[in-house]
Every structure is written in structure tokens, then in C-alpha cells.
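Q: How would the C-alpha cells look for this protein?
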Amino acid sequence: MRHLPPLNALRVFESAARHRSFAAAGKELFVTSSAVSHQVKTLEEYLGLSLFDRSRRTVTLTPEGEQYLTSVRHAFDEIEMATQRLTENQESNVVKISVAPNFLTRWLMPRMARFQALYPDIELEINASMGLLDFDRTSTDMAVYFGSGEWDDIEVHFLRRVMLVPVCSPQLLEGELPLEKPEDLAKHTLIYVSKRKWEWENWLQQSGVDFISARGSLQMSSGQLATAAAQEGLGVALADSTLTSREIKSGKLVVPFDIQLDTNRAFYLVYRKQRPLTVGMKAFKEWLMSEM
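A: Here is the predicted structure in C-alpha cell form.
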């Protein structure tokens, strides 16, 4: 038999601790503040210690209360997520998706009309995010990750490799400093993604250029910003040839050297391991992999 404290008192404690107020907890739970105080007292007597320091106007958690709240909140989060997973509607046509900003604006958004035409009854809720998700602690259904594909405890489906090519504004090619061979990059500003500075070094080596001292350099925090800077004529950036296909076709960007760098990374569609797919998730997965 489990040695658990009174569960209703535990629920009241979590609410009171979260609000730092017995009155606010009472409003949330539809009971009086005195009832909240009684439940907290019951829990304190069970534990044999004080969880709150009480004054006339405020209540504050004791160090023991703070420590206990962390564990209780974690346990409640686990119960809440387990309940959501158990009651997921497999017929749901709403799909919550997390996508890297560059992939979202340059690849997914331009193709959304095609998805809507094929699946008019499917509603997508899209969030732009760079970070990895804990699918056990989020309501997000699926995500598009960029990386090596080596992530634990999630289903991973390969979409496409990321191949980089140099891109710049057409005005840059029409200027006084031509770009006729890779060595000519020494006369121009190279635009780096700050966390991936090795990409330019690898591309130059692959192009047969041992070393160049570029005219200047510009660092951006993301590939999306680096590509935008190149489009504004600020220098030459390395960009995914697929994500920038619209700008290249329209002439807003040009590829001075058609030499591709394989980053050994790719885009992947991911979701919680062993999760049954809803109608909406199946539709999005099939469409995305077909488009890719």
C-alpha cells in the first residue's frame, strides 16, 4: 500500500503555493480561504512540518515548502500529461506543429496553400521554435527538427539533407569586384551563422581554396538572417539551396558558384515515440514527406 498524503490536501497546497495566496487558491478551487487553510493544515500535520509562513496579509513558503512544491508540481504535470495522452482524440483534425523559423518562412509557408487545397478540413497550429521539445510535457503534436537525426525517445522521419551554396545579391555581381572564381571571395564580405562558422571553411576547402583573408565578415544568429543580409547586398552567405529556391528563381538572389556543401545534417519530422497518429497528423505527415 502506498504511503501517500491526503490527495485533496495536496491539490489545495499546490494551488495555494502557486498563487502564494489562500484566497486566490480558494477562488480557483471554488472553496473558501478558510477551507484552503484547513486543508493545508491537514497536510502539514501529516508531514509533521510547516509548509507556509503565515502573516496577517500574506503567506510565504518555507524552505521545506519550496522543496515540496517542486516535487508535487512535477507529479501533477506528469498526471496531467498522462491523462491528455490517454484521452487524445484519434479523429482530431487539429495539428499543433513546431518548426524552425527559417524552414517555416522559406519552405513551409509558400506551400501552405497546396496543403489547404488537399486537406481543407485539417487545421494547423504552427509555432516557430529553434529548441528541442519534451513531447511528454507539451501539447505540441509534431515538430520539424534540423540536425543529425540522433534524438532519443521520439519517432524520427528523414525529410531531406541540407546542402549549402553561396548566395548573394545580383547587384554584387554587377559591381566593380567580380565573382568569377572562389578565390574572388577574398574581395567580399563573408556572412557567417555565428554557431556554424565552420561551414565557410569547409566550403572553401571543398572548392580548392586553402585559405583566404576575406575583405570582411558579418555574423548573424541564424541562417534566415544571413540569407536576408545577402539579399540586401551586405555580402555572400551560405544558404540551403532548397529553402532559398524562391529567391533564386525570382532573381532576388544569385548563386555565383554552383558548388554544394553537404552539411551532414538534415530536416526531420518528429513526434512522441509510439504515439498513435490522429487523422490530422497522418495527413500532415504524408503531405510533408511527399512535398519533400
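Residues 103 and 109 are 9 Å apart (CA to CA).

The longest strand covers residues 154-167.

Upvote if useful.
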